[in-house]
Design a protein that fits this description.
Structural class: mainly alpha
Shape: globular
Radius of gyration: 13 Å
Distance between the termini: 36 Å
Number of domains: 1
Number of strands: 0
Order of helices and strands: HHHHH
Length: 89
C-alpha cells in the first residue's frame, strides 16, 4: 500500500533497493547522500498524486503537509534539494 509520508524514505532507505548497492565503490553516497541534490528524474512515481507530493516536498512551502510529514532523515535530503534548487533563497 502506498504511504504518502514515506515516498522519499522508501527511495533512500528501503531494503528493496539493496540490489542497487551491490558492486558500488565504497565512496558512493548512502542514506540522504545517495541521491542527487538536483534531481531531474525520479523513478517509482507514476501516479499524478505521487508526483504532486514530491513537487510539494521539493518546491512548496515548508508549512505544507507534504513537507511536515516527512521523516527527519527524509527532511535532510529534501532540504538539500531545496537548497541546491534555491527554493528557500
Amino acid at each position: 500500500m502506498f504511504n504518502r509520508h514515506s515516498i522519499i524514505s522508501y527511495l533512500i532507505y528501503s531494503p528493496h533497493f539493496r540490489w542497487f548497492w551491490r558492486g558500488k565503490p565504497g565512496n558512493v553516497g548512502q542514506g540522504e547522500e545517495c541521491c542527487a541534490h538536483r534531481p531531474f528524474g525520479l523513478h517509482k512515481y507514476k501516479l499524478p498524486s505521487q508526483i504532486r507530493q514530491v513537487q510539494q516536498q521539493f518546491f512548496g512551502s515548508k508549512e505544507n503537509e507534504e513537507y511536515k510529514h516527512l521523516s527527519t532523515k527524509s527532511k535532510i535530503y529534501v532540504d538539500k534539494v531545496r537548497k541546491a534548487m534555491e527554493v528557500d533563497a
